[in-house]
Design goal:
By secondary structure, the protein is mostly helical. Helices cover about 45% and strands about 10% of the residues. β4 and β5 (about 180) form a beta hairpin.
Length: about 190
C-alpha cells in the first residue's frame, strides 16, 4: 500500500453512527443535565441570543456553530439542538480553574483575548468561581473560596486543570496553596 492510500485510509472520513446507534443511556444523561441547567438560576448576565443579535449573528449562525462542535465531538447530528441549548445555558455553569505544574500559558492566552475580552467573559458570560490569578483573595481565603464553590455547586461545575498533575512521590513534586497541599490531592478532592 502506498503512502497516499495509507493516509487516506487512516485519516479519511469515519462513518457517523446512525441516530439509533447512540447509547440511550448517554442520551438520557444529556437530557437530565440539560433539565438541571434549565432549572438553575443564571450566574452571570449572559443573554446569548441578545449577544448574538448585538454582533449581528443569527440563530442560524449559532446552529451552524453547534453543528461544527457536534461534529468535532464526534456526536451524531441529533445532538446539534442539545449542543445549541447547552451553549445558551452556559451562564449557569460554574467554572473552577486550577493551576498546577504549568507555565500559565493558558491563563496568559485567556487574559490577552480581545474578542471577547477577558472582562466580558468573566463579568458577562462565565460564572468563574475560582482562578487563583484572577481573584482578589489570596492564601487561605482563596482556598476557602475554591472549597466553598466546589461544595455549593457539587456535581454541577466545570473543572479546568491547567498544567500537569505530577503523581510521583505521592504527588510531592507539586504543592500549591497556603496549606501546601499536593496538586494531586487538590485535583482529586474536586
Amino acid at each position: 500500500m502506498d503512502r497516499r492510500a495509507l493516509f487516506a485510509k487512516t485519516l479519511g472520513p469515519k462513518p457517523v453512527p446512525a441516530p439509533s446507534a447512540v447509547d440511550p443511556g448517554f442520551q438520557r444523561k444529556c437530557e437530565e443535565r440539560l433539565r438541571e441547567l434549565r432549572a438553575m438560576e443564571p450566574l452571570s448576565g449572559l443573554d446569548l441570543r441578545g449577544a448574538l443579535a448585538g454582533r449581528r449573528l443569527s440563530r442560524r449562525a449559532l446552529l451552524g456553530w453547534a453543528a461544527g462542535i457536534t461534529a468535532a465531538l464526534m456526536l451524531p447530528p441529533l445532538f446539534e439542538p442539545k449542543v445549541a441549548e447547552a451553549a445558551e445555558l452556559l451562564d449557569r455553569i460554574p467554572v473552577i480553574w486550577l493551576q498546577g505544574q504549568d507555565c500559565a500559558g493558558c491563563t496568559e492566552a485567556f487574559l490577552r483575548a480581545d474578542a471577547p475580552t477577558v472582562s466580558e467573559l468573566i463579568l458577562q458570560n462565565w460564572a468563574l468561581q475560582y482562578h487563583e490569578i484572577l481573584m482578589a483573595g489570596a492564601g487561605f481565603q482563596a482556598e476557602q473560596a475554591a472549597a466553598q464553590a466546589a461544595k455549593t455547586y457539587a456535581g454541577k461545575y466545570v473543572l479546568v486543570v491547567e498544567g500537569s498533575i505530577p503523581a510521583g512521590a505521592g504527588g510531592g513534586y507539586c504543592t500549591i496553596g497556603a496549606s501546601g497541599q499536593t496538586f494531586l490531592d487538590k485535583v482529586t478532592s474536586f
